[in-house]
Amino acid sequence: MQIGFNVPTSGPLIEPDSLTRIVTEGEALGFDYVTVSDHIMVPRNLESKYPYTGTGEFPAGASAAWLEQLATTAYIAALTKKLRFVLSVMVVPHRPAVLSAKLLSTIDYLSKGRLTLGIGVGWCREEFEAIGAAPFDDRGVVTDEWMAACQELWTADEPKFNGKYVKFDDVVFTPKPVQAPIPIWVGGESAPAIRRTVRYAHGWYPVGTNPQFPMNTVGRFKTQVARFNGFCVKGGRDPSEIALAFRVLSGPGVKSRSMIDGEAEMFTGTDADWVGDMKTLQDLGVTAVDVRLFGYGGAQTLQGTIDNMHRFRDGVLSKLS
Fold first, then answer.
1. Which CATH class is domain 2-319?
2. Nearest to 84 by CA among 127, 32, 143
3. Hey, is 212 helix, strand or coil?
């Protein structure tokens, strides 16, 4: 199982020295990958509901400073040698398709093939409108067309594309990405997200705390994986061809072990509880799990975050094989 950690892209730890220390420490401690989140400009007043809290409240708030995701990933690439980076997730309609394709292929090329492209359609209507992105209500169709255009540019010797939103012909697009293909993980638990995964992705990348599709107990996780497998059968894909990754929005010790419908809530409790949860998911076919080790308790500071990373290495990572 691959284990990742989330790097701060908002809040007090985004200044260069802190960001550099967190990333390089993660690589030195033996993490397999780092995740990088995506917001460009969040309006002050939000009516859109964040999908991963029961209240719909956006935890980062509307006034937080944000680093741009792809620029941050390029910065991380230059700091590291082995660490992979997972876009967690890139909101595909936020950027023009050809520009996205060029930025992503450049990052993969210069990092010698260490990029995993996590994608999503986005949830914040107000942000779409503020940055002049593609229409929010068309975001699913736009995402699929954008990705088809990227694949054409990344693979074809003489790329051409004639879509509703993207058109190009008689162009040169080099260098190509090192990876052929760049792995694509689709974030999201809804039916459209799963159908998108089945159509063209290499991995499904859910979060366990979506109240509509909860995956925060073993039983609930199995139910959602069975649902996912059903979509695979309908879509003509073998589920074993699609990697299962899992994103956790907290770290050990944040929340005491609790019960839901007679089952333990996963990723609560002690280090030993987390080790057990990860081993259970591994037995169920999950190949990657990433966690958040900053932004709570003492981990709101750089030293607190570094301490958390060491504790996680010693208490969890070292216990996994």
1. alpha beta
2. 32
3. coil
